Amino acid sequence: MAITSISYFGRVLMYRILQKKAKARHVDKILLLSTIGISTSPLLWALSQNYWWIAGVEFMSGCYWAGFELSTILLYFQKIDDRERTSVITYIALLNTSGMFLGSLLGASFMKLLPPGQDQYLTLFATATLLRIGLVVFAPQINFKGQIPKIIASRRVLNVMVPSGLLSRPLLEKSKKKKK
């Protein structure tokens, strides 16, 4: 429990530092550095079983996650058009959740395939690190502008009703193209 809480202390500290030091022009650098830090953290856990080493790795991992979260949120507001923001963030949340679900399934099946005598968690951490670093190095740069599927961009929310605490479904209407 103490190891898990150390990560949150790292996040809080890094948020305070980034609040004062980070500038809008540094968002891409913060994202890259935090992604590299997050990618290498599992391998660092595998290097030693010493309590203080793992505590330090968790603290740094919290710092990396704070930088990642802050930079992605700032990029959402910098790069995504206001009209498209809700749709894009919804797609990102769907992809993120699907990735966590798929990663859990792949990790569990990977651990089942490993021989029982082998240290399965350390092998999984090392494999996850290599896959994450490969993704950071070889992933294409994404430009959010104009990436919204046409079906979502062609609809607009007419009304959201919240009667007696229950959320009803928003009414959608196809947008009519204006003729010039």
Describe the model.
The model is unreliable at 143-175 (pLDDT under 50). The longest helix has 29 residues, at 51-79. With 180 residues, this protein is mainly α. The protein is globular, with a radius of gyration of 21 Å. It has helices at residues 2-21, 27-47, 51-79, 85-113, 120-138, 150-153, and strands at residues 155-159, 171-174. The protein has a two-stranded antiparallel ribbon. The protein starts with a helix and ends in a 6-residue tail after the last strand.
SSE arrangement, N to C? HHHHHHEE
Strand content: 5-15%
Indicate the percent of residues in helices: 55-70%
Main sheet makeup: 2 strands, antiparallel
Query: Poorly predicted ranges (pLDDT <50, ≥5 residues)?
Result: 143-175
Gyration radius (Cα, Å) is: 21 Å
**Helix-strand makeup class:** mainly alpha
| Outline type | globular
Q: State the end-to-end distance.
A: 64 Å
Biggest sheet strand line-up: 1-2
Q: How many β-strands, per DSSP?
A: 2
Q: Mean of residue pLDDT?
A: 77
Q: So how many helices?
A: 6
